[in-house]
Amino acid sequence: MYPAPFRYFRPGSLDQALTLLSELGESSRPLAGGQTLIPILKLRMDEPTDLVDIGRLPGLGSINIEDGIIHIGSLATHARIGRHAVAGMIPVLADCANGIADAQVRNRGTIGGSVSTADPSCDWPTLLHTLDADIVCQNAHGSRSVPIREFIADAYTTALGNAELVTGIRFKCPPENSGGSYIGFKKAAPAYPAAAAGIQITLAEGDVCSDVRLVLGAAGPRPVICGEAESILRGNTITRANLEKAAEAIIAESDPPSDIRGSSGFKRTMLHSLFMQAADIAINRARGNRVQGVHEYV
Amino acid sequence: MNMSESTQLVPITVSVNGKTCQRQVEPRLLLVEFIRETLGLTGTHIGCDTSFCGACTVIVDGDAVKSCTMLAVQADGSEILTVEGLERDGVLHPLQQAFSSNHGLQCGYCTPGMLMSSLALLADNPNPTRKDIRKQLAGNICRCTGYQNIIKSIEAAASAMQED
Ligand SMILES: Cc1cc2nc3c(=O)[nH]c(=O)nc-3n(C[C@H](O)[C@H](O)[C@H](O)COP(=O)(O)OP(=O)(O)OC[C@H]3O[C@@H](n4cnc5c(N)ncnc54)[C@H](O)[C@@H]3O)c2cc1C
Ligand code: FES
Ligand code: FES
Fold this sequence. Notes:
The structure holds two protein chains of two kinds.
Chain A: E1 7-9, H1 14-24, E2 28-31, H2 37-42, E3 50-53, E4 63-66, E5 69-73, H3 78-83, H4 85-89, H5 91-99, H6 103-108, H7 111-117, H8 123-130, E6 134-139, E7 142-147, H9 148-151, E8 152-154, E9 157-158, E10 165-172, E11 178-185, E12 195-204, E13 208-217, E14 224-225, H10 227-233, H11 240-253, H12 264-286
Parallel strand pairs in A: 1-3, 2-3
Antiparallel strand pairs in A: 4-5, 5-10, 6-7, 6-10, 8-9, 11-12, 12-13, 13-14
Chain B: E1 10-16, E2 19-25, H1 31-38, E3 57-60, E4 63-66, E5 79-81, H2 94-101, H3 111-124, H4 130-136, H5 148-163
Parallel strand pairs in B: 1-5
Antiparallel strand pairs in B: 1-2, 3-4, 3-5
Helix pairs in contact in B: 2-5
One FE2/S2 (inorganic) cluster (FES) is lined by residues 105-110, 142-145 of chain B.
């Protein structure tokens, strides 16, 4: 399968890339790892006139922590994030990165490409909602930071303007008494999840939940923030009964579509069980225990 | 950026199995087509052409990648290793030998991809567990063997390579 013809540019700097994208206009596309765009071009679901290869732009693949803020460059691949020391500190990053697709796709696909695609079943957008991350965007005139909730506007739609690139992701390093977990359920490794649940929970003295963020993936056009379920947990002691109540609320708040990956009913059942598993891991991590993440598929 | 309407050709230089190759390619040429059609190295297979099966796996700058999901122009300046680069002076690579001795293949269609994926694994992790092997091969599909002998082969190769 061949993509339709296009012209190819590989600028040497971010500034050149931004200028080029604005000159080439709306029928051009940036190309990062190509793990979403190349399959789309091969299927001719998109026929851009020009590709601007940003995949090797210097400086955009770095991962670092400064003053308690984690910064992940947009070109950091899933594989690199999964192996990075930061993922050792914040294991939910490894949960997410290592569960995406297979080793080959993880070696090329980038976090910036994942958020820019805004595919409702892509893993990073859901996980980044649990961390209240900001997406750093830049065009030829300057840069801005957009909260992920505003950045993902709809299915396959972001707040990115024309000729604007994602340059990085930023979020606060969760406190020590906070734990996260993310689990996607997939029918095979090189497939997107049918349903996913992410949780970040902070525990105070006596296992009281002082803060929590619950987000579902592949459960609607955008990641679903379960405000109702969060308020059931926030301020209360973590008990089995409270978690069950929250799980019921999650089911009510989600609206997963019936599609090739499963019926709506099946996905609701999966979401319930994914949430219970993820909550268990996150609570354990918040208590300071080292717990392996789960990313299994049938 | 003055570009004529005619097809753009982009010069690329890659090292393939240690040999430097310079070619002019159309930007839309996939890496797998470059390897198979332009260079004539047909050991790398196309199974699905939809990024799913891993038959087209090659190593680019040390990473296993699906060459049906990469453009040849993206590989410009890279070192590429294909299945043809495994054998040395008529001697099979320990992985190839182990697949042969342990019935790690039947029709052989998936084998080049399996070999390249497992080569990448053993480079990072010379003594993998069965779980590590399964995880690494999750993007490589085999319709014949049922995978058990593939896993056995990789375990055998890992121990043979450690003895060396
Ligand atoms: C077989 C297979 C299985 C997969 N399974 C999963 C999965 O389980 N979970 C999951 O989350 N994902 C999955 N993916 C998608 C994968 O995560 C991609 O890596 C990711 O969606 C896109 O990243 P990329 O760097 O490859 O982007 P590209 O394909 O290069 O680009 C994707 C889109 O984003 C735009 N873009 C890229 N980078 C930027 C940027 N910095 N700024 C602005 N726009 C940009 C491009 O123009 C394009 O429109 C899978 C992909 C494949 C091929
Ligand atoms: S041919 Fe590339 S993944 Fe199947
Ligand atoms: S041996 Fe036939 S597909 Fe694997």
